[in-house]
Amino acid sequence: MVIVEVTDEVKEALRNSDFTPLFLDNCLNSKFLAVEFENQKIIGACFVGGLLNSNGIEINEEFRGKGMGKKLLSEILEECKKRKISFLVGVFKPTNAVSIKTHLKIGYLPLFTVHYNKKEGKEIVVILPFNKKGDLLMSFLKLFNFRIGNIFFAMLMRISRPLLKDIIAFSSGKMPKIDFFYSIKHFEKVQKTLETIQV
């Protein structure tokens, strides 16, 4: 495992790997990555990108369940400490119980649930604060776990769509669009979302 900057060479290696399109987009827009190679091909990666230090991880299917995710995440956490990063923010599909469990074990805290649209469904937004600045952001983001806050979040996501690449390392064309009325109609607190999965 190695920490790499997102150079043209690394971008090419990422494009030649078997990552999902959304994850690949995050990696290409990130600040830095922890990666694992197998025969000069990237088989696992963990990224940090955007103003909100968006964080995510993906392992090629045949290499899952061997502890690589935990190692990649550990590398990222060490690098964040070296760079004096205050927090990491991530999102998880409720169907990805293994990843949610892993992240909660190392200290990620669930903030709120966002419903995008009927096709895309919902995701849980989480944070891992490292210091007081991270704690302050966590306190603010918890406001989105209330109906009025969730309405504000949906509006904010629609308005800031052109800036998403800089905010959360997602190209606006790749980010799922929020159906405002669907999002509001299906609002639920994150605790309720967590109850429906085996965490």
Give your account of this protein's structure.
The chain is globular, with a radius of gyration of 16 Å. It starts with a strand and ends with a helix. The protein contains 9 helices and 7 strands; from the N terminus they run E-H-H-E-E-E-H-E-H-E-E-H-H-H-H-H. Helices cover 40% and strands 25% of the residues. The longest helix has 15 residues, at 68-82. The model has no long low-confidence stretch (mean pLDDT 93). The chain is α+β, with helices and mostly antiparallel strands.
The largest beta-sheet arranges its strands as: 1-2-3-4
**C-alpha-based Rg, rounded:** 16 Å
Output the helix-strand order.
EHHEEEHEHEEHHHHH
Report how far apart the termini are: 28 Å
Number of strands: 7
Helix content: 40-55%
Main sheet specs: 4 strands, antiparallel
Bulk shape = globular
Relative strand content? 25-35%
Average pLDDT, rounded to a whole number, is: 93
**In oligomeric terms, what are we looking at?**
single chain
Q: SS-based structural class?
A: alpha+beta
- Count of individual helical segments: 9
Low-confidence segments, ≥5 residues, pLDDT <50?
none
